[in-house]
Amino acid sequence: KQKTAYEIPKRDWSSDVCSSDLNPRGGLIARSRRGEPIGLLKNTAVDLVTRVVPPPTRPQQLAALRSAIGEANSAGITSIQTVGAVRDIALWDELRNTHELTLRTYAAVETTTRPTDVELAAIEEMRKQHGDDPLLKTGSVEIVPDGSPTSSQDLARLIDRLDRRDWQVWIRAEAPLSSRAALDALQAAAE
Asked: For the segment 87-111, what is each residue's pLDDT rounded down to a tens digit?
């Protein structure tokens, strides 16, 4: 489940999605000056919609990427950075293979604070495929909190594991992972 901000057409809003004036813990519901939701959600606020709106199909995801690439090209943008799961990067790869990817794309791969060996192997395979591709390149891993408590020591071990494999490490510091815990883990991994 992708945890980035995205827009949802107003017609897709359900009255129970944003019935409260409060933001969910670890998320944000962008609102107008009158306090009405405008359709922009961030992080855990996305869960409010994913519970009631079906996930996009692969053709819908590809159409959305094509549209975004077209918008970027029309604005003169030639290079972007993105973060996603291995399956998300496969969408970018499909567009590259069909010569529809007209942006240099640096993709970071998401992982949880407790990835399995199988998940890490899939990330490694992704880098083998796209480590030095001029249009679609990867070399970064973003550690995304999965909701379970994570100690600075556990996080430091994961950072060290990724660093030993020459990955650039990004950390999404949000509840339940504080910025302080992330900084402590980075310092411990460096020592």
From this structure: 888 999 999 999 999 999 999 999 8
Q: What is the DSSP letter of 172?
A: -
Could you tell me the strand order of the sheet in which 27-31 lies?
6-7, 37-43, 27-31
CB 62 within 8 A of CB 91: yes
Q: Please state, rounded to an integer, the average pLDDT across all residues of the chain.
A: 82
Grouping H, G, I as helix, E, B as strand and the rest as coil, residue 170 is: strand
Q: Which residues pair with 26 in a beta bridge?
A: none
Q: Is residue 166 within 8 Å of residue 137, measured between CB atoms?
A: no
- Closest by Cα among 21, 29, 35 to 5: 29
pTM: 0.71
Q: Where are the alpha helices (DSSP H) in the chain?
A: 46-50, 58-74, 86-97, 117-130, 152-164, 179-190
Length of the chain: 191
Dihedrals phi, psi of 121, to nearest 5 degrees = -65, -40
Please report where in the chains the tokens 């293979």 appear, as a residue. 97
